[in-house]
Structures are given as C-alpha cells and as structure tokens.
Amino acid sequence: MTGVLYTERGRTKIAERAITRIVVRAVGETESAGGLGRSLLGMSVGGRAARADVDVDGTLVTARVRLSVAYPYPVREVTHRVRRHVRERVENLTGLTVRQVDIDVAELARSAPAASAAERRVS
Question: What letter does residue 58 receive in the DSSP assignment?
C-alpha cells in the first residue's frame, strides 16, 4: 500500500518501501541505537542495519522496528529517543502522521571502545 498526501497542489503517493527506508535511516541517526548483524546460512555478512516493517493506511503510518541498543545505555531512554526521532523524520519528510512505532530490542551491542589519546592525535 502507499501513503497518499493531499495538498492544494495535488496528490502525492509515497511507497511503503520509501517510508521503511526513512525509518531505518532515522534509527541509525539516533545515538546508542543501531542495527542488527546480517547473516546468510549462518555466516556473518557485512553491514548492520535496523529492520523495519511499515503499514500505511491513508495518511497514518504504523512502524515495527528491530534494533540493537549499545550496552550499557538505558534501553528505555534509547527506545524513547528512537521512537521520537522516527516519528519526527517520517512526518517531516513525508507529511504523513505516525500513529505508532513498535520497537523490539533484539540485541544489546557492545559499544565501540573509546579511542586512546594517541589514536585521537593521529586522526
């Protein structure tokens, strides 16, 4: 299904696939939230991205997101930030209304170690 936005200049159709990509990108833009590892036949394949499913009913969007939270950040705070950022990004970029964002924290990911002072000077 596609989202349909009616304006004074006409009608704009927005595919669910486009909204799904916006949701995944918004998760990646949120601090301490990240994607899930990908695997094929039990072998790790490069890249980590959140997974999302989106349902669009006219101008209402419902999103389901699977993501990881960097350990030891508080899961509740991170998911609150993700939910707010996904809602803002989808509404600002599409004009559609986000009714609900369901989040499944599928993994607690070890956050990257802080760079040492010597590494920061080299960079």
Answer: T
Taking only the tens place, the pLDDT of each residue in 12-52 is 788 999 999 999 999 999 999 988 876 666 665 666 889 99
How many structural domains comprise the chain?
Answer: 1
CATH code for the domain of 18: 3.30.70.1350
Predicted model pTM:
0.79
Which residue bears the tokens 């349902």? 55
Backbone angles phi, psi at 79, to 5 degrees: -65, -35
Locus of tokens 């803002």: 88
- Could you give the CA distance from residue 65 to residue 109 in angstroms, rounded to a whole number? 16
Residues 6+ apart with CB under 8 A from 35: 24, 27, 28, 47, 48, 49, 50, 51, 67, 68
